[in-house]
Amino acid sequence: MEHALSPVNLAELRRPRPYPAVSVLTPTHRREPENAQDPVRLRNVVAEAKKQLEADPAVTRERRADVVGHLDRAMAEVDLSHAEDGLVIFAAPGEHQVWSLGRAVPERVLLADTFLTRNLVSAQAAERPFWVLSVSADRATLWNGGIDRVTEYRADAFPLVRSHENFDPERRMRIGDVPSTFRDEDIRHFLREADTALAAIVRTDPRPLYVTGEQAALSALAEVGTVTRGAVHVPHGGLAGGTPDAVWQAVREAVAAVKRANTDRVTRELDTARGRKDFAAGVDEIWQNAREGRVRLLAVEENYRTTVRDEGDHLIPAISGDLDARDDIVDEIVEQCLETGADVRFVPDGTLGDEHGIAGVLRY
To answer: Are 213 and 184 in contact (CB under 8 A)?
Structure first.
């Protein structure tokens, strides 16, 4: 199952497909007893997708068999024992993908000529992914960070390994044989290579960056690096060859501190905007401004959800399942704001007070 949505992934998912491109969405649960319902709901929503394929006169028998086969293969790849808050299956002629999301999604089936991506985009914005670079004198490992975990990123030259016969820098530093390992020019050159490789990744997928390592390694990297200079440094050695859980435990306090600082900045900007009259709040007002590209900063409480119906000039409250009800209007707003260059920030529940879960700062 896929977790990390990069700009390259998103562009690929958004390209037109031969009809039908099937999007299947279902909420999932992380814990008991709620997760007991997940297998049944998943089977039912996939069965509904197959039913719609069967009933669609625009889908030939051959193409239907192809897409149904990919739905079945996608189902076989789902591992609900590691479920998060939402699951998305994409299937089209010749392909399928399974995405696990850290944000709830409505139960839905859509047949179109493109995949439905707004829920992935919103989940990515809510998760605020980050990079962790763990360095030692002979290894640089890159980690892909999310809400409550990191996973190793194994691509684009990572992990980098510096071969050196009979070389154990961490042991030698512990016993004092090499008191200035990170002054060695070969090692500094290796750190510079790691920084350069990371810079290429960050250019295409910019995220907050954390760097872990011995203090001497961090100091050397600050001297020879570029992209790593502005990172949050976490002085913790031994993680370049460590486990994902060990890395997460090492950086989680730093990640939480950055999140608190970002939330404080958002609330200050919203307060200032109120005084300047370039403030908007509530799903209807925000939606109108988002469609016009006027939202500069969007703040959404993490678990804010609402269902609405579009009455033309305004959105009005609706009940899920009503005709024309839009269960994922918040995700629509998030995607629209991101596409018009807004800074989208998810904040803890209750942060926005009386602003009904969603507020923004306008451009004009």
So the answer is: no
- Only one residue has tokens 């625009």, namely 58
CB 217 within 8 A of CB 136: yes
Cα 256 from Cα 235, distance rounded (Å) = 16
Nearest one of 198, 181, 225, 19 to 115, comparing CA atoms: 19
Hey, is 140 helix, strand or coil? strand
Q: Treating both helix axes as pointing N-terminal to C-terminal, what angle do 185-204 and 215-224 enclose, rounded to 10 degrees?
A: 70
- Quote the DSSP letter at residue 227: G
Pairing of strands 295-301, 343-347: parallel
The helix/strand/coil state of 236 is coil
- Is there a contact between 139 and 163 (Cβ–Cβ < 8 Å)? no
DSSP calls for 168-215: -HHHHHHHTS-TTGGG-HHHHHHHHHHHHHHHHHHHHS---EEEEE-H
pTM over cut 0.85? no
Which distant-in-sequence residues (6+ apart) come within 8 Å of 189 by Cβ? none
Q: Higher confidence at residue 2 or residue 256?
A: 256
> If you average pLDDT over residues 320-336, what whole number do you get?
87
CA distances from 109 to 35, 53, 74 (A): 21, 11, 15
What is the average pLDDT value for the chain, to the nearest integer?
90
Q: Which amino acid is at 273?
A: A
Residue 180: pLDDT band by 50, 70, 90 thresholds?
low
Note the pLDDT of residue 179.
45
